[in-house]
Amino acid sequence: MLGLLDVDELEEAVDGKDLTADQKKAVALCRVNAAVDEGLQLARAGGIDDTVEEFVDIYEEGVLPTQNTYGFWYILQRHANANGDAALLEASIRGLRGILGRDDERANKWLAKLEARLAELKGTQK
């Protein structure tokens, strides 16, 4: 049922309802997926700074998207890499590895570079 509603309709449908823990988790996930979709559209239109801020908030809140996951982790890794955030870079690499797997040679080379950057960051943060 949740997949058939847009987020505004979902918000209206659950407003004032006493939801179970599972229902609350499902609603939170729908909100996150919608926010990531909107953030990626905003980034494509040039609003990358706002998107990064939103995605960092999503990551910190701990409800991670199940849709558009590559775009989510890609933007976070760019931000983490540029800002020297080892913890976020490590999480982003893990997220990207989970999506890309280990069979893509180009992806492996790219992720190896990110892992080398992570090692560098961890070495300087001791």
Percent of residues in helices:
over 70%
- Rounded to the nearest angstrom, the distance between the terminal CA atoms is 49 Å
Q: Tell me about the biggest sheet?
A: none
Quickly count the helices: 6
- Overall 3D geometry? elongated
Radius of gyration: 17 Å
Question: Brief overview, please?
Answer:
This protein is an all-alpha fold.
Describe the fold and architecture:
It is a single chain. The protein has about 130 residues and is mostly helical. It has one domain (about 1-125). Helix content is about 75%, strand content about 0%. The chain is built from 6 helices and no strands. It has helices spanning about 5-15, 20-45, 50-60, 70-85, 85-100, 105-125. Helix 1 runs antiparallel to helix 2 and helix 5 runs antiparallel to helix 6. The radius of gyration is 17 Å and the shape is elongated.
Observed structural traits:
single chain; 126 residues; mainly alpha; 6 helices
Would you spell out the secondary-structure blueprint of this structure?
Blueprint: H1 7-14, H2 21-44, H3 48-61, H4 69-83, H5 86-100, H6 105-124
